Amino acid sequence: MKKTIKIGTRESQLAVWQATLVQNLLHANNVASELVYIKSEGDIDTITPLYELGVQGIFTKSLDAALINGRIDIAVHSLKDVPTQLAVGIQQAAVLKRASYKDIFVCKNDSSFLENNNGSAIIATSSTRRKAQWLNKYPNHRFENLRGNVNTRLRKITEHNWNGAIFAAAGLERINLRPSNSIDLDWMLPAPAQGAIGIVCRTDDQFSFEVSNVLNDEPTALCTKIERDFLRALLGGCSTPISALAIMENGAVNFKGNICSPDGKQKIAIEKTASIPNSDDLGKLAANELLKDGEAQKIIYRLRNAEK
């Protein structure tokens, strides 16, 4: 009798879309599966800003627990939400081919106000990374907290006196909800692993690992590893104003990363390139080089003390 893989997923439209994609890919490889819906702490509390919730693993802890106790065999996540240090007993089984890594801005009316870097506006986001980079470019803008699933967040734009809100392009595009009045934020570096879907399983479950690993996209797995290594070496949390992007081009991996002070007044950036065979440690090397910068060290020191 063939084993049916139990796929753990959060209940949001986007999470279910991602889990269903994995289910369809498994089916194409003659692997039977079923979806198991699990609420995360981040889904239950949709009011408190993420940085106040102690966001490390807030969208993955419930699924981790379900994995460890055997309720599910694999869990599907937006990889940017997964802590860089996985829980004991859990391993990464696959990373699917990446969609758009970009952040986008959804305007309430029009985006002409963005042409004036010194003007005023109200922007909605719950991300400290997005806020910090935005303030670095638009220091006079104010921010409102924005929580909830993508449908809820899009609705809130129409209900509040905001100029617009920041989203991940992949999340809206995957469920065909990207508004026509949205614009790519090409100047904003994304969260490490943004746009990638990850699959995790128990370390002692070889069958689930093997059937999932067939779906692994090696270029995406390498680039997101480099980005997550950069994050982990600097601070380790996905709630911090740290951004990273690794792209393969012409036989090399080009890496860009930065860390900002939460108020956006400081931004320390780095770029590095390595051939693909020599790129495995690129994220760590970039982080170590950045740590030699005195201003970067000051930002990290303040961030670490703020978390205590």
Number of helices: 10
Q: Provide the CATH topology of the largest domain.
A: D-Maltodextrin-Binding Protein, domain 2
Mean pLDDT: 91
Our count of domains comes out at 3
The 3D shape can be described as: globular
Radius of gyration over alpha carbons?
19 Å
Taking pLDDT < 50 over at least 5 consecutive residues as the criterion, the unreliable ranges are: 42-56
Q: Which structural class do you get from the secondary structure elements?
A: alpha/beta
Q: Trace the largest sheet across and list its strands.
A: 2-1-3-10-4
Q: The biggest beta sheet, please?
A: 5 strands, mixed
Task: State the name of the first-level CATH class of the largest domain.
Answer: Alpha Beta
N/C terminus separation? 51 Å
SSE order, as H and E? EHEHHEEEEHEHEHEEHHEEEHH
Helix content: 25-40%
Please provide the count of β strands: 13
